[in-house]
Specification:
about 75% helix
């Protein structure tokens, strides 16, 4: 236990203090842990390779295709069209709720960083047009992006956790949507009521020129393409409750997350690419750029898998599970707590979630905990109190031109509320199902 704790501390120091790339830090700490735990040198190398391969084997297709879909949704103007439609639906009086719904819909196919950069100019345009307080109007939209990033597949961290716990991607998505709605409302519009007096003058530098309305795809095409993964996963999940139907075999095939994402990308290639006048070469170029953007995320996930495998093959995972059982804590709360502590120390939600999963996985094998709820519990914990060691903290501060104090009061507290409300939602849902 002391060796594992020391290795996690070293991992934190390498990433936060020494500024070592998380992927390299995971590899170094994995080998260090294996050596200290007495593993043979040959077996250590095999464990690292197996951990990386097993973790990425079931995920690489989902993450890569998810990045392609998100990139095309952004570049084609579909995200801007969704925002435009939502603004028209909600009007000036309820514009904040329009931004929240927009952020959530766009946050499903887009990775967090892309969604943030894409949505902030929209927030600023609304703020300037209606002379509204920037933080109080913008934070709820970013809360919805954050919840989608931490709770909902096919985002990298929840997708990786589903694979690690052998959960069901569709059920995790359904449960995640149930918990996400109240979490976004409380951490977004409700909490934003306390932030109206924060003075913020967003920098004009960060405003972008929108695509002309006439050049945008249709609203129907934009919504359907962006939400197609959700619709397909939900449909196939619901079909499981009606066994023996004529389309069961087809729905089982279509319900595989990798197939869902492949179908979604194929549809997007036509609806947001070829039918919009793009050549196949241009669309493929967009996809290539998207894969380059997420290369490091993929490597970090693989590195976390290496550490998990070292802990498993050395036998220390069973020891950890035995010690954790003596704490007399509900496993769902324990998973949340471990992820929250690592998140506060490291700053990366993805690293926090994957590291916590490696620690809690052996306990899951010994208990009857719902794996889909554990994904959401760890996902909520991994969003805990974003502060100065999280790039998202500085993006929000600089884009909104805030002091560190006001950034903590707004951004950091919003993320903390997401973590706590998400945990409460998981615990309540656990009592119901």
């Amino acid at each position: 236990m002391l060796i594992v704790a020391a290795c996690i501390v070293i991992l934190v120091l390498l990433i936060v203090w020494a500024k070592v790339n998380p992927f390299l830090a995971f590899l170094v700490v994995s080998l260090l842990a294996g050596g200290l735990l007495g593993m043979p040198l040959g077996k250590m190398a095999q464990s690292v390779q197996k951990g990386v391969g097993d973790t990425l084997g079931s995920l690489i297709i989902i993450i890569a295709l998810g990045a392609m879909l998100g990139k095309l949704v952004a570049e084609s103007g579909a995200a801007q069209k969704i925002a435009s439609v939502m603004m028209q639906l909600f009007g000036a009086k309820y514009i904040q709720w329009g931004l929240v719904c927009t952020g959530f819909i766009i946050g499903i196919p887009l990775f967090y960083g892309v969604g943030f950069v894409l949505m902030v100019p929209l927030i600023f345009s609304v703020v300037y047009q209606y002379r509204l307080p920037a933080v109080a109007i913008g934070l709820p939209m970013l809360a919805s992006l954050s919840v989608a990033h931490g709770f909902l597949p096919p985002h990298p961290s929840p997708a990786a956790l589903v694979a690690q716990f052998h959960g069901d991607m569709g059920l995790t998505l359904v449960y995640g949507l149930i918990i996400a709605v109240p979490t976004i409302i409380l951490a977004g519009p409700v909490y934003a009521l306390t932030l109206k007096r924060i003075n913020s003058e967003p920098l004009v530098t960060f405003q972008t020129t929108p695509i002309p309305e006439a050049e945008l795809p249709s609203g129907l095409s934009s919504f359907l393409t962006s939400l197609l993964p959700v619709l397909l996963l939900t449909l196939t999940t619901v079909s499981h409750f009606f066994p023996g139907n004529a389309f069961e075999e087809v729905l089982t095939f279509v319900g595989d997350p990798a197939i869902v994402m492949l179908i979604s990308v194929a549809v997007a290639t036509v609806t947001l690419g070829l039918s919009r006048g793009k050549t196949m070469k241009e669309v493929m170029s967009t996809y290539e750029t998207a894969v380059k953007d997420i290369a490091m995320i993929v490597l970090i996930i693989g590195g976390a898998g290496a550490l998990k495998q070292i802990l498993t093959d050395s036998g220390v995972s069973n020891e950890i599970a035995g010690q954790l059982q003596r704490l007399q804590m509900p496993p769902l709360f324990l998973g949340w707590l471990i992820a929250a502590i690592i998140r506060v120390c490291i700053g990366s939600a993805t690293v926090a979630g994957l590291t916590a999963a490696g620690i809690i996985a052996p306990l899951m094998a010994q208990q009857t905990t719902n794996p889909n709820l554990m994904v959401l519990s760890i996902g909520a914990g991994s969003l805990m109190f974003s502060h100065v060691n999280d790039p998202g903290f500085w993006m929000f501060k600089e884009y909104f031109n805030l002091s560190v104090k006001d950034t903590i009061r707004s951004w950091s507290m919003m993320e903390t509320l997401v973590a706590f409300v998400g945990l409460m939602g998981v615990l309540i849902l656990n009592q119901i199902i």
